[in-house]
UniProtKB/TrEMBL annotation:
<dbReference type="InterPro" id="IPR029063">
    <property type="entry name" value="SAM-dependent_MTases_sf"/>
</dbReference>
<dbReference type="InterPro" id="IPR026635">
    <property type="entry name" value="Efm4/METTL10"/>
</dbReference>
<feature type="domain" description="Methyltransferase">
    <location>
        <begin position="56"/>
        <end position="185"/>
    </location>
</feature>
<keyword id="KW-0489">Methyltransferase</keyword>
<keyword id="KW-0808">Transferase</keyword>
<dbReference type="GO" id="GO:0016279">
    <property type="term" value="F:protein-lysine N-methyltransferase activity"/>
</dbReference>
<dbReference type="Pfam" id="PF13847">
    <property type="entry name" value="Methyltransf_31"/>
</dbReference>
<dbReference type="InterPro" id="IPR025714">
    <property type="entry name" value="Methyltranfer_dom"/>
</dbReference>
<dbReference type="GO" id="GO:0005737">
    <property type="term" value="C:cytoplasm"/>
</dbReference>
<keyword id="KW-0949">S-adenosyl-L-methionine</keyword>
<dbReference type="GO" id="GO:0032259">
    <property type="term" value="P:methylation"/>
</dbReference>
<keyword id="KW-0539">Nucleus</keyword>
<protein>
    <submittedName>
        <fullName>EFMT2 methyltransferase</fullName>
    </submittedName>
</protein>
<keyword id="KW-0963">Cytoplasm</keyword>
Length: 210
């Protein structure tokens, strides 16, 4: 997980420092948040809907950048990853170099205050960054609103937003993104059974900007 919502000396940055060192030592890219199937789910949806390979894609809170590498391997050519943690961007740069994916753009950015050039994307992807907003002890509600406002700024009208969350249900996410977005699809995620009740520990939704 990576997050633009904690100060640089936070535990996220420290975690990416460790992953960066590990990558330099043994070439291990570190943890894939939500596992491999979450990346496959995203790529399958893009392919199923014949999203053009030159569509501009923004990975919000890119972490180690592995999702962007997989998108590049699937033929996507216009890829950008942002993260608030400089260590995360350093790590993703090294992963990009190792994989020979020079066309992936990487930037240190605070998504709650995006720079002017961060705009006009066809697709935005979030795996856990919106969750991190919810964990922020200082004004989480205000920061979630800022997140939605930023998303409206960077995503084109009729652009797609793919979100994977372990904190929020479908109904809660529909409520959070009701201003400016409509749901297109809920993607299948692994089910779990507890006390005789079946549920999902992960929610994955596709929204379209109005």
């Amino acid at each position: 997980i990576s997050s633009p919502f904690f100060p640089p000396n936070s535990s996220w940055d420290a975690a990416y420092e460790r992953e960066l060192q590990t990558f330099q030592d043994i070439g291990d890219t570190g943890e894939i948040w939500f596992g491999e199937e979450s990346m496959v789910r995203i790529i399958r949806w893009l392919e199923k809907h014949k999203v053009p390979l030159d569509s501009s894609v923004l990975d919000i809170g890119t972490g180690n950048g592995v999702l962007l590498v997989e998108l590049a391997k699937s033929g996507y050519t216009n890829l950008t990853g942002i993260d608030y943690s400089p260590s995360a961007i350093q790590l993703s740069e090294k992963v990009r170099e190792k994989e020979g994916m020079s066309n992936i753009k990487l930037k240190v950015e605070d998504f709650l205050a995006p720079s002017a050039e961060l705009s006009g994307f066809d697709i935005c992807i979030d795996k856990g960054t919106f969750d991190a907003v919810s964990l922020d002890p200082s004004d989480a509600v205000g920061k979630r609103k800022l997140y939605v406002a930023s998303l409206c700024r960077v995503l084109k009208p009729e652009g797609f937003f793919l979100i994977t969350s372990c904190n929020w249900t479908r109904e809660e996410l529909l409520n959070e993104f009701r201003e400016g977005f409509e749901i297109l699809e809920e993607l299948p995620t692994p089910k779990f059974c507890f006390g005789g009740r079946i549920g999902n520990s992960v929610t994955a939704l596709v929204f379209q900007r109005k």
